[in-house]
Structure formats: structure tokens, C-alpha cells
Amino acid sequence: MVEITEGCVLSRLPASTRLILQGRQPALQAACGALGVETVPEMLCTAEGAGGHALRVGPFELALQPTGDGLAPLEAALASVPHSLVEVSNRNVSYTLQGWQAADILAALCPLDFSLAAFPVGMATRSILDKAGALIWRTADQTFHIEVWRSFAPYVEGQLHEVAKSISYNILTVQH
Amino acid sequence: MSKTFRLSGYGRVDRSRPVTFLFDGKPVKGYAGDTVASALLADGRHLMGRSFKYHRPRGPVSAGSDEPNALIGVGEGARHTPNLRATQVEVHEGLVAISQNRLPSLRFDVGIVNTLASPFLPAGFYYKTFMWPHGFWDKVYEPLIRRASGLGKAPTAPDPDEYGLHYAHCDVLVAGAGPAGLAAALAAGKTGVRVILCDENPEFGGALLSDSHSLIDGVAAAQWVARTVAELEKLPNVQLLTRCSAFNYGPHNMVALNQRLTDHLASAPVGMPRERIWQVRAKEVVLAAGSLERPLVFEGNDRPGILLASAARTYLQRYGVLCGRKAVVMTADDAAYRVAIEMAEAGLKIVAVADLRANPDSAVVAEARARGIKVLPSTTIQRAHGHYRVGAVELAPVSADGAVGKGRTVSCDLVLMSGGFTPSLHLHCQARGALTYDDKLGVYLPGDSVEHVRSAGSCRGVYALDAVLRDGAEAGLNAAGGEGDLPVWTVTRQDQPGEGGFAGALPRRGPGHLALAFVDFQNDVTAKDVKLAVREGFQSIEHVKRYTTTGMATDQGKSSNVNALAIVSKTLQRAPQKVGLTTYRPPYTPVTFGAFASHARGDQFDPLRLAPADGWARAHGAVFEDVGLWRRARYFPRAGEDMLAAVTRECRMVRKTAGIFDASTLGKIEVVGPDAAEFMNRFYINGWTKLGVGKCRYGLVCRDNGFVYDDGVVGRVAKDRFHVTTTTGGAAGVLNMMEDYLQTEWADLDVWLTSITEEWGVIALQGPKAREILAPLVDGLDISAEAMPHMFLKEGTIGGIPMRLFRVSFTGELGYEINVPSGRMREVWDRVWAAGQPHGLTPYGTESMHVLRAEKGYLIVGQETDGTATPGDVGCGWAISKIKPDFIGKKALALPALNAPDRLQMVGVLTDDPHYVLEEGMQLVAAPQMQAPASADGHITSSYFSPALNRSIAIAMVKGGRSRMGATLYAPRLDAAAVRVTLVDPVFYDPEGARVNG
């Protein structure tokens, strides 16, 4: 946990299970069911069930973050449905960026609109953090969950620090 | 007479805060709020620079960002910034500014000889004069010209400042905060939508800050500005940016702003960025860029002391500075009369207002006459006299037919010129906006644009203040969606703008072949240069621009474009709208490189991707190389070894015992789904249906043109699951191409792709001892030759860590690629390393990897192939499935041209001299001495010293090469006789493949 600037804390999260589930609607539905999520979230939305989180990052794709039992219940639920379930726990490195300036800092590296109206809590999308790909998920008004590929982690951390250095001067606020 | 030109009771500078700065090493006094130009003018100094080509003495012609003359260098050492406009540089205590393009000093400059030589330096002179002798251009003429011309010097030390770049989003972006911009921002802001208002100046208000005449709602214009800005500041949905120029209008309403944060401060807070770029994505944009007064083109119009009338008004009303004592006003427009009246009131003597028009008769003209100002209709300036400062002008009568008679010379120290106003179309043009020519105003106005943009106020030819405010408010409200109250203001006093104005060169007596009447001050382009270009056959305005360089300086033709256009139009006797207008290019005003680089600097310029064993390699003294964004270990030198020695040792150890190599950067894609095999069949040239689970196959991908795109080993993990590898550089491209076909051509297939490049770290363990080293580590997995032959794959664990073990080889030796979760690869690496020590396990890098594969004749896509090689060309015709109904590239591969016998084919090459290593890229020709131009038979693609063969080897692409084994060719050299080579089979080592199957 590092306070990269006043009003923004960057924390690297411990390794945990990450899965990419791809398939048509029945597969997405079955996977959500296994996590205890009732309906498949809309595009770029997320849902939480007893078994973990499902992030709808593509029309045929969910990024899954199972808790507890992990893979087994998912595989059971998906057994008879065409699908692709691939573990990416090691590919992705996860962070949270938290604080009243978190959105401003992301706005230096990502061209998306991070106002609460345009990027509400619960929204998740693949985008970029300057020259690195990233998954960005708003988990609270001032908290973002970020995942990047492992080899890009030092670069992304460096960029977040670099941007944070001068963030507090005459900045436009992205949130209203 | 007082030495100072500063007037009390005028101006917005803060008289309670005097400031001292240095100009050319001498202290100059000014006040907070001054620019370098206004402070120097307050001292009576107009001379501020030397011109680009002729080294003419120059002073400011404007008071803003359109300034072409008064370009200065600011700051010292690494913080020096050249070519800043003195009319915009705000003074602060300790500011250091210098004049430019002069040697040795501003007042005495040897470069002035260029003016004497001006008859010999016409437009395009460097195309004409410096063609002989051949070869002198590079070494003599160009360096000389470059030294003699140009402006400031760029600093050479790294920039110590911080810069920022941010994205921002809004509903309405308003560029320019003059009357139209303020009205637009307020109208939009009051509806509650997100608004950003930016202006390049330190304070909002634009021309209103210099307007002491107009009254809005009964108050002075500047007071109205203060009131409106205060109102805007109260709106939380409105963001206000001063010192912030909208300099680039990109596609889809992405507008770039350059905000300058520290340059105006004597000492900036630590960590404050010097500048910041805002990339603003705006739903709607209101351009309120205003208009620029046009200079008049007459002989000597560049003498210091000759400036735009509106600029003199700004120096008076904003800075409290009178630009001279005795002025001639030369105008073709009513606006200059108001300036004359105000200047006269402030104590300046107006010798006369010379008006090009025959009957100037508006209210403001009458007012000037009533105040005793002499008005001379039908009068032009034949010539201005003076060197460092204008001293006199000849005022000459213009008859009805345009002929100019003999005039009289009057003395003056100031000439105020006004050719009317040119709407600023730069951003509108950048937004791919069309232009329409307005006959009445004689200027271009903004037409339709593909972007969500609208112009308001004088940048679209609306000049009267009441109309400008209304236009701005309407534009702002409409941009915000049209729902809401339209703010209304009453302008209770204003000048009605006339429809005067003049473009082109003023009429003169005589042809003026030697007259220097400047059109483009910054690039030193004169009226006769433009006329000459037309005479020499350049009729398109774009050609005239490039030939004469008019409008090509950093001011982007702000003051010159319309005058140049009118001269071309008149010379060609063709209407201006038939001549066209040149393109305005970004940036509107220059932007520092630092701002563009922003946080992409130093080791943060690009991501540096580190492989999982990078730390280990560093600890073991590896020399690295960049492969795309990856840093890879190239070789591991021991004490005293150079690359050749290290690589030779590494290669020998791999062939003798075993080597270990971090292959994690290889691209990896997991292809999963019931239709996975079908997808693979369509995508690769190979057949996949019969590949059993647990087996691997070398796969080749072609584009639809039949040319090799990528390759890699593919393992079948399950019936519906393939573990695909790609080249390191091809990883993203192959995944994109797969997705492309899946989404557009084969959406019916139930198969999905996931990048697993970074999920799996890969340890290549290669060499005769590989199995012996690995066997004890793999938790009981049987990896014997019988249980796991070459090109087999097994899943298991290694020390409890999940593993996909491939028996594959890119060295030609018995070998494995151990795939383990990337986050745990280092643990596994350390264990394999320890287990290999008794056997002499050696780390090797990419260089040895290249040599080892070349000894075996394995191709590298991108090295042997160049985007025009078919699988057959590189000896992989065997991989093409003969029974598949289709695959990407199948149709193309059937074309006769792709099967011609004389295509470049991959072969081995041996030199007669076994110690001579050919250079990659060398051409191969039929005879040792060929007459140029000779066509080559082929070229070398890979070349190394082979430790296994103890001689040099090379791979080449040669016409019909496979049928020419044993043939002799020659590799010409620049500095020695051609090298004789023999074509051989490209598999140099172990052609039977006994070792790889061991």
C-alpha cells in the first residue's frame, strides 16, 4: 500500500484466482449461476454472488473472480454447455487505486470519462493505461480495481507514480 | 519629454508590483501583468529581433499570439525556450530574455548583408542557385544557409521540468474567451452541462480588455468581463482555463489544449508541471477564436514602429503604454479611427489618418474629424523610411484608376496600419471544416464541418459587439442542447464596424522590383516573391506557399495568408475563391516537446516487459537486448569473453550437455471449444484433425495472400483445447487475426481465444542431458524416450507446481519447454538450475538460440521471410495439408506466380573461406564483377559462426535456390573483392535428426 499522492493510495493485491469464461448466453448464464449470480450482467457491468464476482467485459465474455471453491463448481455447471474456461491467475496482477484523486490520476493515463455519470460504480471495462492494456473496474465512488498483465506491472506502477507527482496543481476535476 | 512611454491612468498592469527582468543582459523595468514586449515598448524600444532570412531589424507588429517578428529566447541553460513571442511572454522578477538571430548584437548584426543581397535571394533561391558544384550542397551550402537563417537555438541539455497530459470530457468546449466565448460559456454553463472554457491569455476578455469605448448593460466592457467571469466561476459545472491554447482539433471532437502553468511565475511550487496538455473529448465545440487585424503590405512595412492599429490600442488600454509620439495611421477600415481617437486623447500626435478608401464617412470617421484629426482619403503609403525605427513615410495620392501619384514625406515614429480583420479559421479548418468566401467582407468564413463544432463571433465574420454577444450566447445554448434561457445583454455604446478592409499589396508608384514589402514577416516573404512565384508558373496557392514559404512559419500564416492570397488572385486576375486558401495546420501556436512527451519520459517512455527469469539473468551477468517491448538475455559472458566467445561456449555446452533458456516471451494462445480443431484447420495451413491429444505439431499461418505470417508449435491439451505458441513479436498480431476471422467470417464456430502468454512462464531445457536433469523433478511423470518422444506434451506437476511439459526443440537437441505459472516460474527455474549443476547446465541467450537453430536450418519468421515468402519458399511446403477444403491463403497458394520455379527459396550458404562470416543483407550475384545495374540472384538472411561446424554458415533466399545446390554465387563487398559462396542444404547439422529424437 503506497500513498502515491495526497488523496490516492495504490495497493497491490495478493494473487487470487482469475478466470476468463467465454461462450454464448447459456454458458454465461451457467457460469453466473455457479457463482450465485442470478442474471448475467449487462455489457461492462458486474455482479456479485456468494461464489464470487462476474465482470461482463465482452458480449461473449465474463471475467470471473471466484472465491472459496474456485474452479470446481464452475466446471460442473458448464459441463454440458459449449464454452471456454481459461485460468489467467498468473497473467493478471491486481491493484486498487483509492482516494478522491483516483479518478483524476486514471484520467491522465486513460481516455475514458471517469465521471460517476459516465463510469458508475460497478462498471468494468478493458481499456488502456497509457501504453499498457488494463481492466478497470469501479468498485466504489473513489475506488478502482485495476488488473494489468504481469510484465506491464512495473510500467503501470511507474506511470501511476509519475502522474501522481503533479496531480494536485490546477487540475480539472473529472467528477461532478 | 519624458523618457518613459508609460501613461498613468491607463492599463491593467499592477503598478504596485514593479518587476525587473533582463533583456540581452541589461535590466528592464516593468510591472506585473506586462509582457516582455509591453515592458520594452514602455521604454520606447521597438527593436526586439532580427528577421529570419534578411536579418532585418524588427519590432512587434501585434500584441498577441499572431506576432511574427518579436520572437525571443527565454530562460537559461536547459530551461531555455527559443522563439517565444515577446507579445505573450509575461514578465516576472528575474526573467532572462534574449533577442535572436543576430551576431554579435541586436543593434549590430553582420547578417544584415542578406538585405543588401536581397535582389539575389528571390523566392526559391536555394532551388536555383546552389545546384553546382555537385556535392557542395550537403557540405557547404546547406550548413551555411542553416547557420545564417533560422531563429533561436534549441537547448541541448535534457529538459529538467515536469509536464502533464490528461484526458478530460465535457459537453461543451468553448475555445476563446472574448465576448463571444464568454457569452457562449455562460449560456451553456447555465443549463447545467459540463463546460470547459479556455483562452490563451492570462485573463479572459479578449478584445474587450482593450476596449474603452463600448458599454455593455451600461458598464465598461472590461467591467462586464469581470462580472461575467465571476458569474462563470460560481457555476460548478464550468471549468475555466487561462494561459491555455486550443492548438489541435483532432477527429471526433478530440481537442488538444496546451496549458502553461509556471512560465509566468518567478518561482514555481516544487513539483508543479511547467505545462500540461488536455486532450478534451467534447460533445460540442464552440470556436470563439476571434479575428486578427491584417497588416498592410507596402515597402518598408516591417520597420520597427510600424504595427497593427489594434495592437497599439491594446498596448495603450491593457498595458498603459503609448507606442510612440507621432503617428501616421494607414487604414482601409473604420476600426483604426477609434484607435486614432484614443491615441490622440492619450497624448499622441496623429499626423494624419491615410485612408485607402475614397469616401470614408461613418460615424467614427466623423468623430475623428470633429476632434481635429486630419483624414486623407484615397491615400496610400508609398514607402516607409528608417532602419532601427520608422522615421518617415511617403503618403501618396491614389487616383480613381488606382494609379499612385507623387506624394509627400512626413516624419513620424509610429505607423499604425489596419487592413481590416481576418477571421481566425485555424481550428475550424483543423476540424475539417469547409470555407466559404464572403465577397462583402473579402475574407473566408467557416462553412460546414463534419465535426460537432460551431463558430461564434468575429471568427465567423460577426463584428458588431451586440451581434457578437448574441451570436456567442446562441452558439453556447445550442451547443448545450438548446433548452434554457438565452442570456441577453444590451450594448449601450459601440462602434458600428464598417465593411472596409484591404488585402494584397497596397498600390504603389513604379513596379517595385527592389522594394521589400513584406507579406509574411516571420519567413521574410515579400510581395515581389509571391508575384515572382506566379510569374514562374505556380498558380495553385498551395504551390505558391511551398515555393515562397509564405504562411509556413510557426505563426501558420495568421497575418499573411489573406494578403498572399489577394496578391496571387490579382496577379492571376482570378477571383480569390478560385485561388483557394492554404491549409492551416496544427499547432495553432507552437507547443513544447516536453508537453507532448509528458509522463512518457526516461525509462517510462515505453513499457519495459521483463521475462520471469530476468532477475536471475541480471544476477548472472547477462547482456540484454530489446525484442519489441521485452528485454531478453542475449548472452551470458564470463570474465574476458566477448559475444562471439560467450556464444560459442554456450552453443557447445547445449550440444554437449544442456542449456537453460527463458522462452517465456513466446506468444501463447489457448484455443478452446467444441470447434477448436475446425478453427485450427481453417486458420493454419496444417491439418489438425488427426493430431492426437498429448501431441504437438509445428504450425504455419499465412495471410490470405499466401505469404507466411507467423509460426509456432501447437500442442493439443484436450480434444477441445489447443495450446498455441506464436513468435514473440507475432503474439498480438496472431491473436488479433484469429479474433478478426472468428468475429467476421466464422461467427458460427463455437471456439474462443484467450491470451495465455503471460499466464505461463517457459523454461527451455535443451541438450543431451536435459532428460536426466528434468526426470527427478517432475513428480513421478514418466518422461522416458518411449513414454514421451519428440513433439509430445504432458500435463503434470514439478515440485507441486502445475506444469504443461512440451518435448520440443528449437536447437536440434533433445529438449523440453517447461510451462509453469509465470508467478512461480522463478522457483522452478532455480530448481532446474540446481539440478543441472552436476551436469554442467549452462544458461544461454537469444544469440545462441539463433545460432543453434540456424545450424539446424530452422527458419525465423521475419528473418528469412519478408512478407513475400510462401511456405514452399522457406522449405515448409510439406506442412500444407492437401486434404483440407480450405484454409487462409489456400487460394493464393494455388496461383501460378506463387509456384514459379524461380521464386526466392531458402538455402544454405557456405563461403570458400570457412572463417569469413557474411553480413546479413548481402546480395548474391552470378559473377564476381557485375556491371551496374545488376540484378541480384538472392540475399543473405542469417549468418553466423557455427561452433558445431567450426566454420561460418549462412542462410539465404535465392532464386530457384533448391534446384541449384552446389552452385557458385558471389557476395559483392564495398571495400574488397566479392566473396565466393556455394549453395547447400540449409540443414547444416545432424540432418538425420538423430539428436532431437534421442
Automatic annotation (TrEMBL), chain A:
A Pfam family per the record: SoxG
UniProt-listed Gene3D superfamilies: Heterotetrameric sarcosine oxidase (3.30.70.1520), Probable tRNA modification gtpase trme, domain 1 (3.30.1360.120)
Source organism superkingdom: Bacteria
Protein known as: Sarcosine oxidase gamma subunit
Origin species: Acetobacter cibinongensis
UniProtKB/TrEMBL annotation, chain B:
Residues covered by the SoxA A3 domain: 517-597
Entry annotated with the keyword Oxidoreductase: yes
FAD/NAD(P)-binding domain sequence ranges: 171-450
PANTHER family per record: AMINOMETHYLTRANSFERASE, AMINOMETHYLTRANSFERASE, MITOCHONDRIAL
Keywords, comma-separated and alphabetical: Oxidoreductase
Protein name as it appears in the record: Sarcosine oxidase alpha subunit
Boundaries of every GCVT N-terminal domain copy: 616-882
UniProt GO BP: tetrahydrofolate metabolic process
Aminomethyltransferase C-terminal domain boundaries: 905-990
A GO term for molecular function: sarcosine oxidase activity
SUPFAM superfamilies the UniProt entry points to: Aminomethyltransferase beta-barrel domain, FAD/NAD(P)-binding domain, Folate-binding domain
Entry similarity comment: Belongs to the GcvT family.
